[in-house]
Amino acid sequence: MDEKQELAIKEFFDDFVAAFSSFDGERVATKFSLPYMAKGPGSSCTVFDSRSALAEYFQSYLDEYHSQGCRECRYWNFSVNWLGSESVVASVTWDLVDASGVSVTSWSESYMLTFASGSAFAFVTVDHVGN
Question: Which of 53, 78, 91, 93 lies at a C-alpha separation of 20 to 30 Å from 110?
Answer without folding.
Answer: 53
